[in-house]
Request: fold
Amino acid sequence: MGADEVAFGVRYRLAGAAIVVELRGELDIMAHQRLSPGLDWTLDCHDGDIVVDLRAVTFLDASGMKLLVRIHQETVRRGRRPALVRGNAQVSKVMRIVRLEQAFDLVGDLFVDQPFAEDGDQDIHRAG
Reply:
């Protein structure tokens, strides 16, 4: 990966009334710093529940977990429900060890994939 390439990204989509936050790549301190403003904007501008999709996350460190805690706290503070689509085995293991997975409602892949086929795909905005 070159010096100018970003090792992380996010895509925001609507699935019915829920906002799906698709995180990808390495969730580290750089991701936390760069993605936080877009997350704030999304939470401020849309009032649906939040579904965090970790399927494309390849790495998760303490700063990445801090980002997920922030998403959870801000979602709950706004009176919404935070949900999670589990990532790969390594990411899920880290989430279970620190008991962060318990903070979210767990939803399966079908919840995220099915509404797009029925309602269409609507991007809110992209970052990363």
User: Anything to note?
Assistant: The helical segments are 29-45, 62-77, 89-97, 109-119.
